[in-house]
Each structure stands twice: as structure tokens, then as C-alpha cells.
Amino acid sequence: MTTAVQTPAANKQLTVTQKARRKKRQGSVVLTVLTALMALYSLVPLAWLIFNSSKTQGDLFTSFGLWFSDGHFALWDNIRDTFTYNDGIFLRWFGNTLLYVVVGAGGATLLAALAGYGLAKFSFVGKRAVFAIVLGAVAVPGTALAVPTFLMFSKLGLTNTPWAVIIPSLISPFGLYLMWTFASQAIPDEMLEAARMDGAGEFRTFFRISVPLLAPGIVTVALFSIVATWNNYFLPLIMLKDPDWYPLTVGLNAWNAQSTTAGGEAVYNLVITGSLLTILPLLAAFLLLQRYWQSGLSAGSVKE
Amino acid sequence: MAVSQPAVARRRRSWRGWQFVGPFMLIFALVFLAPIVYSIYLSLYRNQLIGGNSFVGFDNYQRLLQDSQFWESFGRVAIFLVVQVPIMLFLALVVALAIDSGRLYGKAFFRVSIFLPYAVPAVVATLMWGFIYGDQFGLVGNINETFNVSLPNPLSPHLALASIGNIVTWEFVGYNMLIFYSALRVIPGSLYESASLDGAGQFRIITAIKLPAIRGALVIATIFSIIGSFQLFTEPVILQPLAPNAITTYFTPNLYAYQLSFSGQQYNYAATVAIVMGLITMVIAYVVQLRGNRER
Amino acid sequence: MSKLLKVGAAATAALLSLGLAACGGGDDADSGSGSSATVSDADVTAALEKGGNLTVWAWEPTLKNVVTEFQKKYPNVKVDLVNAGTGNDQYTALQNAVAAGKGIPDVAQIEYYALPQFALGKSLTDLSGFGAESLKADFAPGPWNSVHSGNVAYGLPMDSGPMALYYNKNVFDKYGIKVPTTWDEYLDAARKLHKADPKAYITNDTGDAGFTTSMIWQAGGKPYTVDGTNVTINFSDEGSQKFVKVWQTLISEKLLAPISSWSDQWFQGMQNDTIATIATGAWMPANFVSSAPSASGKWRVADMPQWTAGQNASAENGGSALSLMNKGLNNNQALAYGFVKFANDGDGVQIRVDGGAFPATTKQLSDPKFLGTEFKYFGGQKANEIFAKSSQNVVTGWTYLPFQVYSNSIFNDTAGKAYVSGTTLADGLKAWQDQSAKYGNEQGFTVK
């Protein structure tokens, strides 16, 4: 069993040998072109977003979608307007989203790490039931549970507060799964035994010894939770009424919908620019933390 | 999926693990289990605008069995499941294998660019594609005009599902690609060496070594995709104002449940839809998992 | 009245039991308290002076200024104006809050078509105890009738939407087409226009419940009758058939732009001459100005085309009331009524009219200054004269269903099919009728 455990360090070694082996191979133009088509498919809509966030509300409707308009290059104006429209509510939504991400995704990561570790390294009463219940519950469509959840939260006085968004995002079943598989591989039982021999408490052992070993997995789970929370739409939509607590997704859709009423003003240029601004921080986080989450995923998915 | 029992001494079989699992399960119970239990309770009642609340036993379930709107919506996500999910996973697998093959120029660029759409919130992605799909003045309209062709309206009734499939594929190919790619990266090099000694070709290496080695990742990606398909909601609901006649209020089971409870105030029947969809999803996910494990 | 009360109480009890079942929380028995209370003008004045907090849910943009002025006049009152979503989104939130029995606003904006549903659910306060009936003369008859359900006022009219025909004068001039005064002429204009320019359409329509019911209303149709819990739905009456005949021709000959109202493509179409007319409510000018700015000067307003030449029938499209909610957050209905009266009958009206809203009050509707306003967007036309006239000519006797919100939500599932497939509009409306009736019966109404 111990030989099957792959520490991240071992992973790295393997990758190095693989890389060395593969360098010898010839590049394939055909394969590159085929993959490039796929990349094009992925990037064209994003390019659309960039081109169109440089247009005024008027030009948006009159110019070709995949190029800049002949008129005014309005990207900076749009960005400024996005941040100042409605007394700068966009910034407030941005702050709310950050709050939900830090507390929600942070908490989700912590809970998933603790629980994944507990499931991987302890044998306890009811463990099989935990797995069955979690997987079973995930299958029930969340949207359909929205009303019962809403009524419950309302009775608890949680609706229209940040908690209504944060508490449900604390649970990430996929994060639990990842941490579970990761912890069973990354932490040698011998190390835990040794720590226990020294008389260290369980939590001390966890934070001192296991967390460093789990780091790549934790970063991975954190990133996935961040994406999930950042992208959360339906839950805040029904839980929150006060635009002051909206996250970006709900706010943007509200801007998109605001033209649909008597006296409403169409601000599609701000919706598009706001969308661009919404995805930038996530893209940055992914690119910066690439190294970590990739190794975290590797260990998480190798299940033999 | 079934995690092998780690080598933990038997004597520690106790309640101690709950220190770690407890907090997760506590909140899990609050946000998942309690609403499910409450939904089961709701599904046994009927509440009318006139007449009030009454216990009706399994009437709601009986009504569901005969509800053509529900089965139509179910059929739609079932088609989505058998068409979109394989296409998406196949594309993801091909790209992952291509990047892993080491024969690509600029592989880091491809890896990142194909993954990028995953970082775009579903709401933003759908708003964006909604603009693009406009056949009068959107990108589709632009193309029709510029190239003097007449592409059909992507949001017409018979194309709407495919157009939504395209959005979902766009959003998740990269994500699944990454899961597969990560699994491919940790296949021990020794396996390849023995294979090349045997003189196996690329195709043979893929079918004999790579695919079996990442079966775990394939199974988990499939299960999550199945759950995702059955819960299809955000994309159709945001496109609905643009194509109200193509995307009905019972376009997907989830949309139907939403419509029932929010527009129709039929909370009880909506809860029934949720419970039944949950059961169906569970059964299918379980079958996939069993099959995946058996073939291992 | 007493019958309705009983029905309402039952519905409230039902909603309450639903909410309470969640956690078995405490019960507050006085669910009907709002309707029997008597609040005098003096009470309202005292409440305004004393002050307090008010939560108002509304999406009407001009209310912002009203709140500012209101708070200036009554410095002790603090109004929390919340945009909880537009139309349906807000009703969803409102229904949820009512079901939970918590977080209900004191005042809510409710469109006329949705008002009977909330009134029947006993969510709204009966305003007869506040002396609302004495304000009858202040409001145009159409909106005044619309805030009533079973002879009881459940709100004060905020705005109204007497219909008019907005048309792109450039397009009509370019092809030498006469602006239609009857719907038959409209049909001819549609054919001529589309023939002259295959990219141009007389109007856009992909099936819109509010528009369809307004058109039937104008044609003199009365598909809905409501008597307590006895409801009839019937789209085979003469008025409905008049509409079906003309509209089926427009659909069959592909003379309608396949663009949904309120989409980005709609605003584009107004600006690039591909949508030539829009028949809708008098609140539309503000939307033209803000969402289709580049078409300024091209458009004009005309009377609604008629079903019978020489008549001057009109109908309402849209428009909303401010209503007092039962069990509101701050439980201060005298204060809430004070605000609603200020906004819809007092100083607030002029503030909103200045902000571009279309009033429901006779004072503003007959004010020479209001009527004389020249709309720059419409090439200096005094459009309010047309709207005010339309307001007086609204066909009387129209009612909405007590579950119109739901019914409208399934319009595109049923009647919408006529716009995209071989189904005829008549069959589509029949399907709409059947599905609506089915829902009504499920909810305990007797629908025929």
C-alpha cells in the first residue's frame, strides 16, 4: 500500500522523466492545427467580448461583431461608466462578490480539507453512510430545492443577508471528493503515526504535518470553489432582494433586464464591459496559480 | 471512485474522524438534507389558492407520471445527455490526448486558452452567446449579411436545444480537458517504456495504456456531466426572453420546477418534480459508476 | 365582499401554514387586520409628522426623486426604496416573502394585470378604510377601475398606459405609405412596406401576452369574467376574433419581424428603420429616448388604428399601482398610505411627470402645460394630447384573471406556437385558454 502512495514530489519526478522522454518526439502540424481550431472556438466569444466592450451603446448595434467599430474607441469610457453608473453600484457588487468568495469559498475549502482528510485517514462509525448521503444529495436538482431552502432561511431570518449566499456555498461536494482522494495519497500514514507517538493532538497534527502536504490539493479546491462562488447566480437571485447585496452575476443580469420596463434605460455596453471586468480577476487567479492547481488535479484524478 | 481503505489501524475505528467530518456534515445537513426532507414532506400535500392546504398522499407523484409536460422536459434533457455530453467529453479527451502527446507546437497556449471559458460565469457566457446568436443584428446576422448567406436562427424551436448545447460545451470542454490531462500526466513513465519496447504504435498506446489509466477521471467527469445535464437551468432561463416560443416554461425539468413554484405557486408539485428528478439522476449516476468500476 | 373576504382569509391561512410548516414558528392570528382598520386623514398626517421607517419595493425609475422630495417634506420619515426586480421578478420575490411571512415590504409597485392575484391572495390592504374612495375623481377612470378588485381599492394608480401607435415617419414617407387609421389599413401598410423593403417590417411580435390582451381589449373583447371564484375564459368572442383575424394574416404572410420586444435587437430595429411601428402604452417615450437615442426625430405618435372605421376606441397597456402590503416590515400602514398618497396623488405626481412618467391623475392629464409639452424626440409633436385623448377612450368593462401572472407566463408555451410553427393563432389561444383554465381549477377556482 505504501508504495502506491504518490506524494506530490514523486509526481514531479515522473513528469520530469515524461518530459525528457517526450522531447525527442516530432511536433505534428496536423495535430496542432486541429487543436488550434478548438482554441479558436474557445477564444472567439471572448474576443467578441473584448471588441464589443470598446463600443458605445449606439455603435454596438451598428458595427460588425468581431471587429472594432469605426466610431469612437470607448473602452475607457465604458470602464469608467461601469464603475460610476448608479452611484458606483458595480464596485459595491464587486466587493460583495469578493466577500462571498473569501468567506464562502475559503470556508468551503477548509471544510472540504478537514472532511476529506477525516474520511481518508480515519475509520469511523458511519463513514460509508457519509459517502452515500453526499453523493445522493448532490443528484437532487438544487433549483427545485430553492423554495424549501428559501422558506427555511427566511424563518431563520437569513434571507436578504450575506449569510443566505455564504452558508450554502460552504459546501462543495466535488471539493470533498478531491480532498479525499488527494489526502489518501499525499499523506503517508507513517508520518501521522510518528506525530501521534510524539503525543501531538489530532488538529495539531493536521495543521502542522498534513496541511503542507495537502497544499496543492487545497489550492485546487480553493480555485474551484472560487469559480463556483464567483459564478453563483440562482441562489443569490432568490435569496437577495436588496441590490446592495447582489454579487456581480445577479447585478449584471439586472442591468441587462432594466431596459425592459417603462422608463428603463438600455445599457448593453455596460453589461458587456461589466462582463469583461467580471471575468478578468478569475482569469488572473487561474493563470497565476496554474502551477499549483495542475499538480493538485493530477493527484486528485489518479485513482487506481 | 470507491476509495480504498487506507492502512489505518483497526483500533482507531471510533468516532474520532467525526471531529474532521462533523463540521462539513453539519452544514451539509442544513443546506442539502433539510430542504430535501422538507421537499418530501411538501410533496405529500397540495396547497390551493382557494381551499388551502391538504394532505394528498402520493397524488402528486401520480399526477407526475401522467404529466406530459414533465416527460417532454425530461425527454429533452435526456437527448441533451446522450448527444451533448459525449460530444463534449470526446472533444475534451481528444484535446487532452493531443496536449499530452507532446507533439503540439505551443502546448501551454492551447492548454490555457481552451480552459479559459470555464472561468466565465454561466450568466455572462449566456448573455454573450445570446448577443452573438441574434439573427437580425447579432453576429449571426452580421455573418448572414457580410457573406450573403442565410444561417438559420440559432434560437428557433428546433435549434434552441443545440444552441444551448453549444454554450454548455463551450463552457465545460476546457474544464473536462484539464481533468483528463491531469490524469494523463501521472501515468507512470515505465508503462510507456515497456509499451514502446513492445513496438506499440500511438493509437495502441492510447487504447491500451492511456484510456484505461484515466478511467477514474472519465467516470467522475461523466457523472458530473450527467448531473449537470439533468439540472440544466441557467442557460435556458437567460435565453428565454430572446426566444420565448422556443424555450417553453417546461423546457427542462429544472425550469419546469422553477416555473411551477415561482409563477404558479405550486410548491408541492414542484417539490415532487425535484424529488423524482433527484431519484432518476441518482440511479443513472450509480449505474455509470458501477459500469465504470466493473470494466476496470 | 364578505364572500371575497372569506376566500382571501382561506388563501392567507394556506400561505401561512405553508410558511410555518418550515420550522413550526409562532403564529400570528390577525392576518386580516389590514382590511377592517379605519385610518383617518388626521391619523395619516400624524404618522407623517411622527415619522418612522418605510420599505418600498418598486422598479419605477422616477420614484427615486419622489422619495428624495418626500423625505425633505417629512424629515422624520426614512424611506428604503428597493428595486427587487422588474415585473415578474419582483412578484416572485413578493410571493416568496408572503409565503415566508417575513421580509414583506410596506409598499409595493404592482402592475394592474397582477393586482387581482395579489388582492385575492389577501396580500394587499383594502384601502376603503383609509378613505381611498373619496379620491375617485382625482384619477382617470381606466386606472381607477384597474386598482379595484371586487369593488375594493387595493392601491392607488401610479401610472397608466393608454395605447397609441408610434410610427417611424421616415419609413412611411420614404415609401409613400399612409399612416393607418384602421387595422385593415395597417395590414395593407404592412404588405406594402415589406414588399418595398424585404428587411423592413410593420412591427415586431413573437407573441406577447400583455400586448395580445390589450389588443383584444381595444377590439371590445371580454375573454375574462370574474365573479368571486367563478371565472370564465373564452377567446371565441367577437372582439378576440377580430384581433385573431388580422394578426393571423400578419403571421401567415410573414409580415412581423421575428424579434422579441425588449431585446437588444428590438432597440436596434427601432433605430435602423426595420421596425416601422409599435403599438403600446403612453409610457414608451422615455424608453425611446434612453434606449433608442439615435432615432430621435424619426418617430411620431398617432391614435391607435381602429377595428371599426370612425371609432376612437383605446385600451390600456401596462401601468401600475402602489399598494399597501399586509404584514409589512415596519407595520405602519398610516405612514405607508401617506407615502402612497404623496407619490400618486400629491406632489409626487408632478415630480414623476417631470421625470418622463405618464400620469394617471386627471389633474395632470388635463393640465395645459402637460398637454402642450413638445417632445423633441417626436420632432416637437405634442404627443401628450394624443395620450390624454386615448386615456379617455379606453373601453370599459375589462377585467384580468385572478391568476393572470401565471396565465401570462404560459402564453408563449401555448399561443406562442402560432408565431413559430403551423399552429394557428386561434388554436394557440384555445390552448392558452385550456391551460389557464386547468391551472385555475387546480387552484380551487371554478373555471368555465
TrEMBL record, chain A:
Domain ABC transmembrane type-1: 94-289
Primary location group: membrane
Membrane topology, as annotated: Multi-pass membrane protein
Subcellular location: Cell membrane
PROSITE patterns xref list: ABC_TM1 (PS50928)
Transmembrane regions listed in the UniProt entry: 29-51, 98-117, 129-151, 163-184, 205-230, 266-289
Entries under Pfam families matching the protein: BPD_transp_1 (PF00528)
UniProt cross-references to CDD domains, sorted A to Z: TM_PBP2
Keywords for the protein's UniProt record, in alphabetical order: Cell membrane, Membrane, Transmembrane, Transmembrane helix, Transport
Family: Belongs to the binding-protein-dependent transport system permease family.
UniProt name for this protein: ABC transporter permease
Organism whose genome encodes this protein: Paractinoplanes deccanensis
UniProtKB/TrEMBL annotation, chain B:
Protein name per Swiss-Prot or TrEMBL: ABC transporter permease
Keyword Transmembrane included in the entry's annotation: yes
Domain of life per record: Bacteria
Pfam families reported for this sequence: BPD_transp_1 (PF00528)
Predominant location: membrane
Locations listed in the record: Cell membrane
Signal peptide: none
SUPFAM superfamilies the UniProt entry points to: MetI-like
Recorded family membership: Belongs to the binding-protein-dependent transport system permease family.
InterPro entries the record matches: MetI-like, MetI-like_sf, UgpAE/MalFG_permease
Membrane topology type: Multi-pass membrane protein
Organism the protein comes from: Paractinoplanes deccanensis
Keyword field contains Lipid metabolism: no
TM region positions: 20-41, 77-99, 108-132, 159-184, 213-233, 267-288
Record-annotated ABC transmembrane type-1 domain positions: 74-288
Record keywords, A-Z: Cell membrane, Membrane, Transmembrane, Transmembrane helix, Transport
TrEMBL record, chain C:
InterPro entries: Bact_solute-bd_prot1, SBP, SBP_1_CS
Classification via Pfam families: SBP_bac_1
Gene3D superfamilies: Periplasmic binding protein-like II
Signal peptide: 1-22
PROSITE patterns registered for this protein in UniProt: PROKAR_LIPOPROTEIN, SBP_BACTERIAL_1
Keywords: Signal, Transport
Tree of life domain: Bacteria
SUPFAM superfamilies attached to this UniProt entry: Periplasmic binding protein-like II
Regions that span the bilayer: none
Protein family (similarity comment): Belongs to the bacterial solute-binding protein 1 family.
Name of protein: Sugar ABC transporter substrate-binding protein
Organism whose genome encodes this protein: Paractinoplanes deccanensis
Organism lineage string: Bacteria, Bacillati, Actinomycetota, Actinomycetes, Micromonosporales
